[in-house]
Protein backbone atom coordinates (compact mmCIF):
# COMPACT_ATOMS: atom_id res chain seq x y z
CA UNK A 1 0.00 0.00 0.00
CA UNK A 2 1.17 3.53 -0.78
CA UNK A 3 0.07 5.89 1.98
CA UNK A 4 0.41 9.62 1.25
CA UNK A 5 -0.32 12.40 3.74
CA UNK A 6 -1.27 15.52 1.77
CA UNK A 7 -0.77 18.72 3.73
CA UNK A 8 0.65 22.22 3.51
CA UNK A 9 -0.41 25.84 3.60
CA UNK A 10 -4.10 26.69 3.32
CA UNK A 11 -4.66 28.03 -0.18
CA UNK A 12 -1.66 26.26 -1.69
CA UNK A 13 -3.78 23.67 -3.54
CA UNK A 14 -4.25 20.72 -1.17
CA UNK A 15 -7.89 20.13 -2.15
CA UNK A 16 -6.99 20.33 -5.85
CA UNK A 17 -4.13 17.86 -5.34
CA UNK A 18 -6.45 15.42 -3.54
CA UNK A 19 -8.95 15.55 -6.41
CA UNK A 20 -6.15 14.88 -8.89
CA UNK A 21 -4.87 11.94 -6.85
CA UNK A 22 -8.41 10.57 -6.70
CA UNK A 23 -8.52 10.73 -10.51
CA UNK A 24 -5.26 8.78 -10.50
CA UNK A 25 -6.83 5.92 -8.56
CA UNK A 26 -6.02 6.93 -4.99
CA UNK A 27 -8.55 6.42 -2.20
CA UNK A 28 -8.75 9.95 -0.77
CA UNK A 29 -9.96 11.13 2.63
CA UNK A 30 -9.88 14.80 3.55
CA UNK A 31 -9.74 16.26 7.07
CA UNK A 32 -9.91 12.98 8.98
CA UNK A 33 -9.77 13.64 12.76
CA UNK A 34 -6.10 13.45 13.67
CA UNK A 35 -6.71 11.10 16.59
CA UNK A 36 -8.09 8.53 14.14
CA UNK A 37 -5.01 8.53 11.89
CA UNK A 38 -3.19 5.54 13.49
CA UNK A 39 -6.36 3.43 13.47
CA UNK A 40 -7.08 4.45 9.86
CA UNK A 41 -3.53 3.53 8.77
CA UNK A 42 -3.70 0.20 10.63
CA UNK A 43 -7.04 -0.69 9.05
CA UNK A 44 -5.76 0.04 5.54
CA UNK A 45 -2.54 -1.93 6.03
CA UNK A 46 -4.29 -5.25 6.75
CA UNK A 47 -3.45 -7.95 4.19
CA UNK A 48 -7.06 -8.44 3.02
CA UNK A 49 -7.71 -4.79 2.13
CA UNK A 50 -8.42 -4.09 -1.53
CA UNK A 51 -7.14 -0.53 -1.34
CA UNK A 52 -3.65 -0.11 -2.81
CA UNK A 53 -3.12 3.65 -2.78
CA UNK A 54 -4.35 6.08 -0.12
CA UNK A 55 -4.11 9.88 0.15
CA UNK A 56 -5.06 11.50 3.46
CA UNK A 57 -5.62 15.27 3.58
CA UNK A 58 -4.55 16.93 6.83
CA UNK A 59 -4.42 20.67 7.53
CA UNK A 60 -4.85 23.34 10.17
CA UNK A 61 -8.63 22.81 10.19
CA UNK A 62 -7.92 20.07 12.73
CA UNK A 63 -7.94 22.85 15.34
CA UNK A 64 -6.57 22.04 18.78
CA UNK A 65 -6.12 18.39 17.80
CA UNK A 66 -3.53 19.49 15.21
CA UNK A 67 -1.03 19.71 18.06
CA UNK A 68 -1.17 15.92 18.30
CA UNK A 69 -0.30 15.33 14.65
CA UNK A 70 3.43 14.92 15.24
CA UNK A 71 2.74 12.40 18.01
CA UNK A 72 0.31 10.43 15.85
CA UNK A 73 2.73 10.33 12.92
CA UNK A 74 5.39 8.99 15.29
CA UNK A 75 2.91 6.32 16.42
CA UNK A 76 2.31 5.26 12.81
CA UNK A 77 6.09 5.01 12.41
CA UNK A 78 6.28 2.71 15.44
CA UNK A 79 3.58 0.52 13.91
CA UNK A 80 5.93 -0.03 10.95
CA UNK A 81 3.54 1.58 8.47
CA UNK A 82 5.39 3.50 5.76
CA UNK A 83 3.95 6.85 4.71
CA UNK A 84 5.01 9.79 2.56
CA UNK A 85 4.28 13.47 3.15
CA UNK A 86 3.35 15.73 0.24
CA UNK A 87 3.66 19.35 1.38
CA UNK A 88 2.07 22.03 -0.80
CA UNK A 89 3.39 25.55 -0.34
CA UNK A 90 3.15 28.99 -1.95
CA UNK A 91 4.51 32.46 -1.30
CA UNK A 92 2.71 34.62 1.25
CA UNK A 93 1.77 37.21 -1.38
CA UNK A 94 0.28 34.48 -3.58
CA UNK A 95 -1.72 33.03 -0.69
CA UNK A 96 -3.09 36.46 0.27
CA UNK A 97 -4.11 37.07 -3.34
CA UNK A 98 -5.86 33.68 -3.58
CA UNK A 99 -7.81 34.30 -0.37
CA UNK A 100 -8.90 37.73 -1.56
CA UNK A 101 -9.98 36.37 -4.95
CA UNK A 102 -12.12 33.66 -3.36
CA UNK A 103 -13.29 35.97 -0.51
CA UNK A 104 -12.58 33.24 2.00
CA UNK A 105 -11.30 33.78 5.53
CA UNK A 106 -8.08 32.17 6.65
CA UNK A 107 -8.73 29.51 9.38
CA UNK A 108 -6.33 31.35 11.72
CA UNK A 109 -6.96 34.86 10.42
CA UNK A 110 -9.26 36.01 13.18
CA UNK A 111 -10.94 39.26 12.18
CA UNK A 112 -10.04 39.08 8.53
CA UNK A 113 -6.26 39.42 8.94
CA UNK A 114 -5.13 37.00 6.24
CA UNK A 115 -1.41 37.81 6.57
CA UNK A 116 -1.46 37.14 10.32
CA UNK A 117 -3.26 33.85 9.77
CA UNK A 118 -0.64 32.78 7.22
CA UNK A 119 2.19 33.63 9.63
CA UNK A 120 0.56 31.62 12.44
CA UNK A 121 -0.05 28.67 10.14
CA UNK A 122 3.57 28.63 8.91
CA UNK A 123 4.74 28.45 12.51
CA UNK A 124 2.35 25.64 13.44
CA UNK A 125 3.12 23.40 10.45
CA UNK A 126 6.86 24.07 10.13
CA UNK A 127 7.63 20.59 11.50
CA UNK A 128 5.60 19.02 8.67
CA UNK A 129 7.62 20.83 6.03
CA UNK A 130 10.80 19.62 7.72
CA UNK A 131 9.56 16.02 7.55
CA UNK A 132 8.08 16.27 4.05
CA UNK A 133 9.02 13.69 1.44
CA UNK A 134 7.98 16.04 -1.37
CA UNK A 135 7.55 19.82 -1.35
CA UNK A 136 5.69 21.44 -4.23
CA UNK A 137 5.61 25.23 -4.45
CA UNK A 138 2.47 26.09 -6.41
CA UNK A 139 3.09 29.86 -6.53
CA UNK A 140 3.67 29.84 -10.28
CA UNK A 141 2.23 26.45 -11.21
CA UNK A 142 -0.65 26.10 -13.60
CA UNK A 143 -3.19 23.41 -12.75
CA UNK A 144 -1.94 21.18 -15.57
CA UNK A 145 1.66 21.58 -14.33
CA UNK A 146 0.62 20.46 -10.84
CA UNK A 147 -1.10 17.42 -12.33
CA UNK A 148 2.01 16.52 -14.34
CA UNK A 149 4.20 16.74 -11.22
CA UNK A 150 1.80 14.54 -9.23
CA UNK A 151 1.64 12.01 -12.04
CA UNK A 152 5.44 11.83 -12.19
CA UNK A 153 5.68 11.19 -8.46
CA UNK A 154 2.64 9.07 -7.65
CA UNK A 155 1.82 7.28 -10.91
CA UNK A 156 5.01 6.99 -12.93
CA UNK A 157 7.24 6.60 -9.86
CA UNK A 158 9.94 8.88 -11.24
CA UNK A 159 12.66 10.29 -9.01
CA UNK A 160 11.58 13.65 -7.69
CA UNK A 161 13.55 16.69 -6.60
CA UNK A 162 11.86 19.47 -4.72
CA UNK A 163 13.31 22.32 -6.82
CA UNK A 164 11.01 23.93 -9.41
CA UNK A 165 12.57 26.51 -11.72
CA UNK A 166 10.80 29.35 -13.51
CA UNK A 167 12.75 31.05 -16.30
CA UNK A 168 11.13 34.44 -16.87
CA UNK A 169 11.72 37.17 -19.44
CA UNK A 170 10.69 40.72 -18.51
CA UNK A 171 11.05 44.37 -19.46
CA UNK A 172 12.88 46.72 -17.10
CA UNK A 173 10.47 49.52 -17.99
CA UNK A 174 7.69 47.45 -16.43
CA UNK A 175 9.66 46.70 -13.25
CA UNK A 176 11.84 43.87 -11.99
CA UNK A 177 9.81 40.77 -10.95
CA UNK A 178 9.38 40.91 -7.18
CA UNK A 179 9.81 37.17 -6.73
CA UNK A 180 12.99 36.88 -8.81
CA UNK A 181 15.91 35.07 -7.13
CA UNK A 182 18.40 35.78 -9.90
CA UNK A 183 18.17 38.76 -12.28
CA UNK A 184 20.21 39.10 -15.48
CA UNK A 185 20.31 42.26 -17.61
CA UNK A 186 20.79 41.70 -21.36
CA UNK A 187 20.35 45.33 -22.43
CA UNK A 188 24.01 45.36 -23.48
CA UNK A 189 23.10 43.30 -26.57
CA UNK A 190 22.10 44.87 -29.93
CA UNK A 191 18.39 45.73 -29.85
CA UNK A 192 16.14 44.33 -32.64
CA UNK A 193 13.64 47.08 -31.76
CA UNK A 194 15.58 49.44 -34.01
CA UNK A 195 15.40 47.11 -37.03
CA UNK A 196 12.18 47.93 -38.90
CA UNK A 197 11.43 44.35 -39.99
CA UNK A 198 12.15 42.93 -36.53
CA UNK A 199 10.46 45.57 -34.37
CA UNK A 200 6.95 44.03 -34.47
CA UNK A 201 8.28 40.50 -33.94
CA UNK A 202 9.36 38.84 -30.65
CA UNK A 203 12.17 36.65 -29.39
CA UNK A 204 9.97 33.65 -30.20
CA UNK A 205 10.40 34.40 -33.91
CA UNK A 206 13.43 32.82 -35.66
CA UNK A 207 14.45 36.11 -37.30
CA UNK A 208 14.75 37.89 -33.94
CA UNK A 209 16.43 34.91 -32.29
CA UNK A 210 19.02 34.70 -35.05
CA UNK A 211 19.69 38.45 -34.91
CA UNK A 212 20.22 38.42 -31.13
CA UNK A 213 22.36 35.28 -31.09
CA UNK A 214 24.45 36.22 -34.16
CA UNK A 215 26.70 38.06 -31.79
CA UNK A 216 29.83 36.94 -29.92
CA UNK A 217 28.70 38.75 -26.75
CA UNK A 218 25.35 36.95 -26.73
CA UNK A 219 26.93 33.55 -27.22
CA UNK A 220 29.57 34.21 -24.56
CA UNK A 221 26.93 35.45 -22.13
CA UNK A 222 24.81 32.34 -22.67
CA UNK A 223 27.84 30.09 -22.17
CA UNK A 224 28.72 31.82 -18.89
CA UNK A 225 25.07 31.79 -17.75
CA UNK A 226 24.62 28.06 -18.39
CA UNK A 227 27.95 27.34 -16.70
CA UNK A 228 26.73 29.25 -13.65
CA UNK A 229 23.47 27.24 -13.63
CA UNK A 230 25.47 24.00 -13.74
CA UNK A 231 27.17 25.13 -10.54
CA UNK A 232 24.22 26.74 -8.73
CA UNK A 233 21.33 24.33 -9.30
CA UNK A 234 22.87 21.20 -7.71
CA UNK A 235 23.81 23.32 -4.70
CA UNK A 236 20.30 24.76 -4.45
CA UNK A 237 18.94 21.21 -4.49
CA UNK A 238 21.32 20.17 -1.71
CA UNK A 239 20.34 23.23 0.32
CA UNK A 240 16.66 22.25 0.05
CA UNK A 241 15.46 25.21 -2.03
CA UNK A 242 12.12 24.40 -3.66
CA UNK A 243 11.43 27.44 -5.86
CA UNK A 244 13.89 29.30 -8.10
CA UNK A 245 12.92 32.20 -10.36
CA UNK A 246 15.55 33.20 -12.92
CA UNK A 247 14.62 36.53 -14.53
CA UNK A 248 16.21 37.76 -17.77
CA UNK A 249 15.44 41.37 -18.63
CA UNK A 250 15.80 43.81 -21.50
CA UNK A 251 14.15 47.19 -22.05
CA UNK A 252 10.68 46.07 -23.13
CA UNK A 253 10.74 42.32 -22.45
CA UNK A 254 9.96 41.45 -26.06
CA UNK A 255 13.13 40.68 -28.02
CA UNK A 256 16.49 40.11 -26.30
CA UNK A 257 15.20 38.84 -22.94
CA UNK A 258 12.76 36.44 -24.63
CA UNK A 259 15.53 35.06 -26.85
CA UNK A 260 17.95 34.46 -23.97
CA UNK A 261 15.25 33.13 -21.63
CA UNK A 262 14.22 30.62 -24.30
CA UNK A 263 17.84 29.56 -24.77
CA UNK A 264 18.31 29.10 -21.01
CA UNK A 265 15.05 27.16 -20.75
CA UNK A 266 16.14 24.89 -23.59
CA UNK A 267 19.41 24.24 -21.76
CA UNK A 268 17.64 23.41 -18.49
CA UNK A 269 14.71 21.42 -19.90
CA UNK A 270 16.43 18.06 -20.57
CA UNK A 271 17.55 17.66 -16.93
CA UNK A 272 15.64 15.25 -14.67
CA UNK A 273 16.57 16.62 -11.22
CA UNK A 274 14.09 19.52 -11.20
CA UNK A 275 10.95 20.85 -12.82
CA UNK A 276 11.22 23.85 -15.16
CA UNK A 277 8.85 26.23 -16.92
CA UNK A 278 9.14 29.32 -19.12
CA UNK A 279 7.20 32.56 -18.69
CA UNK A 280 7.39 35.68 -20.87
CA UNK A 281 5.88 38.25 -18.53
CA UNK A 282 5.91 41.35 -20.72
CA UNK A 283 6.08 39.99 -24.26
CA UNK A 284 2.76 41.50 -25.31
CA UNK A 285 2.74 44.73 -23.30
CA UNK A 286 4.36 46.84 -26.00
CA UNK A 287 1.43 46.25 -28.35
CA UNK A 288 -1.12 46.90 -25.56
CA UNK A 289 0.56 50.18 -24.61
CA UNK A 290 0.55 51.39 -28.20
CA UNK A 291 -3.11 50.43 -28.66
CA UNK A 292 -4.05 52.67 -25.73
TrEMBL record:
<feature type="binding site">
    <location>
        <begin position="8"/>
        <end position="15"/>
    </location>
    <ligand>
        <name>ATP</name>
    </ligand>
</feature>
<keyword id="KW-0547">Nucleotide-binding</keyword>
<dbReference type="Pfam" id="PF03668">
    <property type="entry name" value="RapZ-like_N"/>
</dbReference>
<keyword id="KW-0342">GTP-binding</keyword>
<dbReference type="InterPro" id="IPR005337">
    <property type="entry name" value="RapZ-like"/>
</dbReference>
<dbReference type="Pfam" id="PF22740">
    <property type="entry name" value="PapZ_C"/>
</dbReference>
<dbReference type="GO" id="GO:0005525">
    <property type="term" value="F:GTP binding"/>
</dbReference>
<dbReference type="InterPro" id="IPR053930">
    <property type="entry name" value="RapZ-like_N"/>
</dbReference>
<dbReference type="InterPro" id="IPR053931">
    <property type="entry name" value="RapZ_C"/>
</dbReference>
<feature type="domain" description="RapZ-like N-terminal">
    <location>
        <begin position="1"/>
        <end position="155"/>
    </location>
</feature>
<protein>
    <submittedName>
        <fullName>UPF0042 nucleotide-binding protein</fullName>
    </submittedName>
</protein>
<feature type="domain" description="RapZ C-terminal">
    <location>
        <begin position="164"/>
        <end position="283"/>
    </location>
</feature>
<dbReference type="InterPro" id="IPR027417">
    <property type="entry name" value="P-loop_NTPase"/>
</dbReference>
<feature type="binding site">
    <location>
        <begin position="59"/>
        <end position="62"/>
    </location>
    <ligand>
        <name>GTP</name>
    </ligand>
</feature>
<keyword id="KW-0067">ATP-binding</keyword>
<dbReference type="GO" id="GO:0005524">
    <property type="term" value="F:ATP binding"/>
</dbReference>
